[in-house]
Amino acid sequence: EQHGHINAIGFDLYTQMLERTIRELKGEAVVPEARVTLNLGVDIRIPADYIADERQRLRMYKNIASAADEAERRKLRQELADRYGPLPRSLVNLLEYAALKAVCERLLIHTLEQRQGEVSVRFHPQTPVAAARLVEFVRSWEISAGAQLTPTGILRFRVPRAEGWLSELRKLLLSLVP
Question: Which of 59, 73, 112, 120 has its CA 20 to 30 A from that of 171?
Fold first, then answer.
């Protein structure tokens, strides 16, 4: 019977559900799952002329998506450079995107959008980020004028779209970590 469930939902999702249920039964704290939606308007792909073999490209997408921490992403970046040469901008963006997504998952961010240099962040109701920390962030000198926290709980601020802005955005969000 369990085999049928695995086939229906996939092995990874099945094991996540099983681990979550075990933690709940043990009485351990279970972090709510937050599906993150990132809409940043950047090219995040591995060009076919960089990795010609489609299977290798797909495998690398999977490796980047499953990299658990910064050390693994750094190792992947080095592996890519060693194997295929200097990384194209779109691949650098993809690696930075993966790191940013990991931070968003950690902070329980529902959506992160960027439009014309303005970033909007919507948090999950159970985010570990305290409201006082968000207010402090808005008042901070580190970010440009015009930062605001709307009554609906959306954090908005400006980030210049210069090279490396995804990395800067990740650092700003990490400053919210309690």
Answer: 59
In the structure encoding, which two tokens stand for residue 94, read together?
């993809």
Quick one: DSSP state of residue 29?
-
Question: What does the alpha-carbon distance between residue 17 and residue 5 come to, in Å, rounded to a whole number?
Answer: 11
SS3 content of the chain, % helix, strand, coil (to 5): 50, 15, 35
**Pairing status of strand 37-39 against strand 109-115:** parallel
Q: How far is CA 92 from the centre of its chain?
A: 14
Distances (CA, A) of 54 to 46, 47, 50, 97: 10, 10, 11, 21
Per DSSP bridges, beta strands 154-158 and 148-149 are: antiparallel
Give the pLDDT confidence of 48-75 residue by residue, as tens digits: 999 999 999 999 999 998 888 889 999 9
Nearest to 97 by CA among 174, 170, 34: 170
Token digits for 4? 């049928």
CA distances from 113 to 68, 101, 153, 159, 167 (A): 23, 12, 14, 11, 15
